[in-house]
From TrEMBL:
Ranges where the Cullin family profile domain occurs: 1-206
Protein name per its UniProtKB record: Cullin 1
Taxonomic source organism: Vitis vinifera
GO BP annotations, alphabetical order: ubiquitin-dependent protein catabolic process
InterPro entries named among the record's database cross-references: Cullin, Cullin-like_AB, Cullin_homology, Cullin_homology_sf, Cullin_N
The family this protein is said to belong to: Belongs to the cullin family.
A GO term for molecular function: ubiquitin protein ligase binding
Amino acid sequence: AIEETLEKVVKLLAYISDKDLFAEFYRKKLARRLLFDKSANDDHERSILTKLKQQCGGQFTSKMEGMVTDLTLARENQTHFEEYLSNNPNANPGIDLTVTVLTTGFWPSYKSFDLNLPAEMVKCVEVFREFYQTKTKHRKLTWIYSLGTCNINGKFEPKTMELIVTTYQASALLLFNASDRLSYSEIMTQLNLTDDDVVRLLHSLSCAKYKILNKEPNTKTISPTDYFEFNSKFTDKMRRIKIPLPPVDEKKKVIEDVDKDRRYAIDASIVR
């Protein structure tokens, strides 16, 4: 049934004139599926890429195929890293760390911010960097924290719960280990993030379904004059909860990028 559906999808693509736009959106969504383990099945992903390749040519799918291969390599890399840690007990940062190493050219470009990581995480980053340099000297690692996830234990008065959060959310929550009450501007300075990011971040932790932080004044929007406190009374019937961070809508940006690429293609055909 899946094969048939994929066949239909690829046939339909033959009638679409904006194939480049489709490719860009498909690549963005594929990246999300692969990185967040949302993909139903690797074989299905490969199967549709093969069909797209037959339909639109190798250049159309080369980056996407690179992405799928990258993940297989990243899994091997992770196994080597775990072996390295078990052989060097001194290097172990005390936190379970999984790193997915990707090749810049294949994946959509993500903004990499200089997030001020908590000390525990900085150690993880350094340990991995040392391990990576034992394998290759000439590659530079760029960390993309906006795609990371963390499992942290929240010690609330009713019970301890496991929170599944993004790296940004985890960094913000860990600030409250050191201080009980923080202002918007203090959080922003300590994390070294932009206004938009801080608003999204704090909204997800204090105004959404799970209120891990209490906010003063208690309104539904975040403003630069707000104060935040750790909500020690928080509880939920689940032992593990996932706290979503709403994704940024990238539709407009994708369309702009494709337009930019088209301009070069048009110029080239005019010259020819």
